[in-house]
């Protein structure tokens, strides 16, 4: 199939999914404001202290959105007087377009984001020049993402360490197939694009030259793998786990293997909403934190999976979600079972600090990688520009205020906006106090 036909096939699939999932390209998304089970009734006493009692947030049905869904279903937001209306987004581009519209235009106030989407929406870099200032408020989850490979390349034995498991694979593939290996992600120039790029480049494979990169909405993952649209897909669970569970492919690598306790997706809201509703913003953060703490407890994983599995939310089988939430994976071409909660999705606690806190050192990394791959010329051309944008958008001060008002113990309130040095699977070190040295150390760049 030539590139034009593949492009048309992808567009057709994306359009088909938009009819199913709503909220696409500026159309008003379907909201799910859920009074939920007993105990989730809005706390009117708390509501009376807020500037507004409602906020509309977009989400994509992957595990990063779990704190938002649980916050609604278990009444954590309602406890703090806030009615959070969640709307499922057909794609990341739909979420972007809807936040530009805002609720006044039938869109959303904010929601779940891959980085650096909020920073680039703020700068107008991915919104046709329209600048919509955003505020990054919290990290939703760490880990819980993976790179799935198709059964068509099972004999390639792809793993996190390609130099060891699959030397020369991509060159041999191109020679045999007469085309490049196709690797997909859900949105360009953001998290899942960066994970697959780092994985390839860390193994000496140039993602700009040695493979063909595609953008495919997450709901198209399974069908794309089945019909041969791509050989690998980088996205959030439950999709990689479901690919393995349905025997459509195998889990080549988890993002936890690439970078343990790495930053993932974030809660970000339009800055004008935050500025207008500071008390409601704190209420939102309190509800989110409590949902994240609840999600992190092993005894709650099964219930969380049941909540998320409903057609209203993820429409994914409960067992698939439960296994993913518990860090139960089938790894590699041989399908080796592995259970390690520390390498699965983390919502609150980790050996690198509290997950929820938006460390500026971590949010900066996405901008440094953007600089590495020359993703946003004219917007992010220097480390200094990256740091200035990061400082403007990340509102860790609001997270700290909410944490103190919630009465968190001192050990769970970070004392610094930096988590310190980070080490990747290939031995590369990212020192946020000297990001230029990290950038200079990278052998493969855009």
* Number of structurally distinct domains: 3
Q: CATH superfamily of the largest domain, called what? A: Periplasmic binding protein-like II
Average pLDDT taken over every residue = 91
SS element count, helices: 20
CATH topology of the largest domain: D-Maltodextrin-Binding Protein, domain 2
Tally of strands: 15
CATH class of the largest domain: Alpha Beta
Give a structural overview:
There is one protein chain. By secondary structure, this protein is of the alpha/beta class. The chain folds into three domains: 3-141 and 263-309, 3-Layer(aba) Sandwich (D-Maltodextrin-Binding Protein, domain 2), CATH 3.40.190; 145-255 and 329-340, Periplasmic binding protein-like II (D-Maltodextrin-Binding Protein, domain 2); 360-441, no CATH class. Helix content is 40%, strand content 15%. The chain has 20 helices and 15 strands. The chain has helices at 3-21, 44-47, 66-73, 76-79, 92-101, 117-123, 162-165, 169-177, 191-202, 221-227, 239-245, 255-258, 271-276, 278-296, 301-309, 318-325, 360-372, 383-393, 396-406, 435-441, and strands at 31-32, 54-59, 83-88, 110-113, 134-139, 145-150, 181-185, 211-215, 232-236, 249-254, 266-270, 328-331, 336-339, 422-423, 429-430. The strands form four sheets. The chain has a six-stranded mixed beta sheet with strand order 1-3-2-4-11-5, sandwiched between helices. The protein starts with a helix and ends in a 5-residue tail after the last helix.
Short description:
This protein has 20 helices and 15 strands. By secondary structure, it is of the alpha/beta class.
